[in-house]
Design brief:
Radius of gyration: 21 Å
Structural class: alpha+beta
Shape: globular
Helix content: 25-40%
Strand order of the largest sheet: 3-4-8-9-7-6-5
Number of helices: 8
Distance between the termini: 51 Å
Largest sheet: 7 strands, antiparallel
Number of domains: 2
CATH architecture of the largest domain: 2-Layer Sandwich
Length: 290
């Protein structure tokens, strides 16, 4: 496959925004990236390509300030290979590749596993949707969640990324906060789509039978009739209270959980972030055994 490549070097902090133009061939002889939508095929191709490229870059002793501004960027003219599965032209950009590789390591996620989960089979659509129309998908093995975001969200992520990374370092990856693993921009037919990949907060092995989005508030905190009609609705605070259920996790786990929650909330307060909630999933053992 012939391609034109414009890339920002990720091999050193000093060259994080240095652009080089060169013509080369990119071999895609083994993997085919078949998906129901071109944008998903491009995501699979892009993650596969960037992880392969990153595997050739030595892991630095420490991250440098410029790593939090760096990016890798490629423009592909796909005329000769895999034309039935990929758009004829597309662009793929990865933000802060060295930083997110470091975060994946701190969350004990191997890059090869990350690559396989996102490229072995197409991501799956989720019936969840954000308040602002954000789209949610999961990797085929349900280990990771892919969320579409706005360019403003990407800018905000850049603003908090250094503090977020430092927090993850200090807590040794032991947090209830979203585990951010990758941040991308995909361009297909001139349309830019921004995506963020996080670890699925729920187990990929155990089925979630009921879930709650809890804010600690009762004002307008009830699932709508439309939400309740879904196969797996997201219930809210008033639903939880009206049901009269309690979560029994034991005294030690309760103490550990509340300490972690307090630390996370205090960190969010330093960022002046107020709109957040706790996502709770319930696995019904008896129901699973039926």
């Amino acid at each position: 496959m012939s391609s034109n490549c414009t890339s920002a070097a990720v091999v050193s902090a000093s060259a994080s925004k240095t652009k080089t133009k060169k013509k080369h061939f990119i071999g895609q002889k083994v993997k085919l990236f078949r998906a129901s939508e071109p944008i998903l095929s491009v995501l699979m191709w892009g993650v596969n390509h960037t992880i392969n490229e990153l595997s050739n870059v030595p892991v630095p002793v420490m991250l440098m300030p410029d790593d939090f501004k760096a990016y890798s960027k490629i423009k592909v003219d796909n005329h000769l290979f895999n034309k039935e599965n990929l758009p004829s032209r597309f662009k793929f950009k990865e933000y802060c590749p060295m930083v997110f590789r470091n975060l994946r390591e701190r969350f004990s996620i191997d890059d090869q596993d990350y690559q396989n989960s996102l490229t072995r089979s197409a991501p799956l659509n989720s019936d969840s949707q954000g308040r602002f129309g954000n789209r949610f998908l999961t990797s085929y093995d349900h280990r990771f969640v892919i969320k579409t975001v706005s360019s403003e969200d990407i800018a905000e992520m850049h603003n908090i990324l250094k503090k977020y990374h430092q927090f993850i370092v200090e807590c040794h990856g032991n947090t209830l906060l979203p585990q951010f693993l990758g941040m991308y921009r995909l361009t297909v037919d001139g349309v830019e789509t921004y995506m963020v990949v996080t670890r699925n907060v729920f187990s990929h092995r155990l089925t979630v039978h009921r879930k709650y989005d809890l804010k600690g508030s009762t004002v307008s905190r009830e699932a709508s009739d439309k939400e309740k009609a879904k196969d797996l609705p997201t219930f809210k605070d008033n639903d939880f209270l009206n049901e009269g259920h309690k979560l029994q996790i034991g005294d030690d786990n309760k103490k550990y959980f509340l300490e972690k929650l307090k630390r996370d909330v205090e960190f969010l307060a330093t960022l002046k972030i107020m709109d957040y909630s706790l996502l709770v999933g319930i696995h019904d053992v008896e129901r699973a055994e039926q």
